[in-house]
Amino acid sequence: MAENSTSAREAAYTEGVPCWVDAQLADVEAGKRFYGDLFGWSFQPSYGGTVWAYHEGEPVAALAQKADGRLPTVWTVYFATPDAEALAGRIRAAGGQVVTAPVPVGELGVAALVTDAEGAVFGLWQPGTHAGFGLRHEPGAFVWAELYTRDTAAANAFYGGLFHEALFGPGAEPDVGRAPLTDIFPAEMPPHFLVHFGVEDCEATLTEVNRLGGRIQAGPFDTSYGTVAVVTDGQGASFAVLQR
């Protein structure tokens, strides 16, 4: 269901809830063609040359131009927080690192990039005028983020300490899972978050991924939260598609 009002979004995105995703791409126009065809997204310019993706008229993701070609081509998940500076300090204290210190994104909010204690990168988002996804948990929108890690117990302790209420509090419906790095990934693959987008038909979506110049990395395979396949777009950004 679309969350149409800003106040509803703010209420939904309490600290520790995934509230936004973006892809850092070398060619944003190519990204628009790929994801527009795959998910039916439309696009509008946003802050600093970033484009926002819309599904059913609601914002669901952003595509951004990589500032440096040496940076990874990657999807990043952002966790909501009322105070990015304070959360960044708690992340440091818990053994994580701050990659990019909190910085204002116009009037939209404040963003930061951080890592957990094993090096998995994720974002922080302190809302201004932009609270987060206008649509989620549906085909064509964000539905899940899976943390692939070498030590699930340590990850549970790290994120449980930071985001206990979002993960374990009363009424919590976390959009994040933890799983060990396994043989579906190359041995050199570092711990990372994998963004999942909802689809109605996983097999049909994989056919489209191939047609559009992407690649299937793994799957489809069954999980406790649905049928999943891991793919890359035509530029190498990995993501997953999930059929509930």
TrEMBL record:
Q: Which residues are in coiled coils?
A: none
SUPFAM superfamilies this protein is in?
Glyoxalase/Bleomycin resistance protein/Dihydroxybiphenyl dioxygenase (SSF54593)
Enumerate the Pfam families for this protein: Glyoxalase_6
Q: Which domain of life is it from?
A: Bacteria
Domain named VOC: which ranges? Answer: 17-127
Q: Where is the signal peptide?
A: none
Q: What is this protein called?
A: VOC family protein
